[in-house]
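User: For my dataset I need records formatted as: sequence, then structure tokens, nothing else. Please produce one.
Assistant:
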Amino acid sequence: MKEEILRLLRSADGYISGQELCNRFGVSRTAVWKAINQLKEAGYEIEAQQNKGYRLMAAPDLMTEAEIKSLMHTEWVAKEVLYFDTIDSTNIKAQELAEKGYPSGTLVVADKQESGKGRRGRSWVSPSGTGIFMTLMIKPDINPNNASMLTLVAALAVAKAITSVTGEEALIKWPNDIVVNGKKVCGILTEMNAQFDYINHIVVGIGINVHNESFPEEISQMASSLMIEAGGKRFHRAQIIAETMSYFEQYYDTFLKTQDLSALVREYDELLVNRNKSVRVLDPKEPFDGKAMGITPKGELIVDTWESRKLVSSGEVYTDMSKEVVLCVSNAYQKKYYLNENFNGLPQTIRDELKIMCVLYTEDVGGILELVFDEDGNLDFRTSCKENDFFYDEIGSVLKIKQYRNERRELLESIETYYRIVFLGEGLEEE
């Protein structure tokens, strides 16, 4: 009853009388009064006036089931909402609920998530009151080969919802990272449970940085929150959830008609942050450069290179600074190490040390490691992994790179010096 009272109070143009609420729910005035008081105790500011009734003045930043449901206007998505103050993983809980027979569209939400995904017992802990951690469980009647496109559907929904609620322009970094002012504010992880030709269920996990005030130094240049990017403004997290679910339902129903993104390509391309920009693709087989043009109806990234048009289905994509130069790449998936042949002039001992360092990284952390010189000759570490690579240790990656920068400083500085002298011509005097 509380969620329905909230819904009525929100939709009312002025006051709602106690008698109207009694008639609506078939309960006594005492029952209504108790429900109103419970809402007040939860933090809702509700004004009561004799002969007028009740009016909602302000709502707290809560993500309870009652609060989320009172804001929801969907047909089937998030009709079942489960909220947890703290949870290990909303994805794991959603998978459990799917196995128990919960309906498609069930939404799991948590204020704080303690994920056990990291290797060696590492976990990512986010403070309460800062973020949105939610997982939508669906049971689509589609070919399993088409399931990966739902990640892009979710990305489109989240970007639209963030812009709608915050007024900040949210864009998509292919395939499913959401960025505001060039910094990542949301990540999406889609997991599927399927037979050979049948999907049992899919869980779409969404994590949004909302009220985070700061980030570790190692990631502060690429990660942010909605509050930071909005200049300190706070937002109603339940409203962001409700808007995301509304957009997802709309785009999902569109997707089902064709089982591809043909009807959504234009909208997605309009939000693609690296569209019509030079990019570097860390393809699992071999990195390459080109210009991002948009996506195909299958969700592949279209990249035009100097020799051909390529369709990218996996791999990390970076905006390519024209003067950047790749030094080397270590790939855990292909079990390969690549050194740019232009650097064969490096002393053999340095090449050997470099190879050992990079290979050990991918053996320990996984994924792909790329060392790149920027236009000033600084050596940058770039990492990526395949979508749904559950063995990739993201936190371990940050720590390992930090370790390398400290312990292998002499090696890295010597390579930078070589590059600046040989390639940039620094330190060479004209006669």
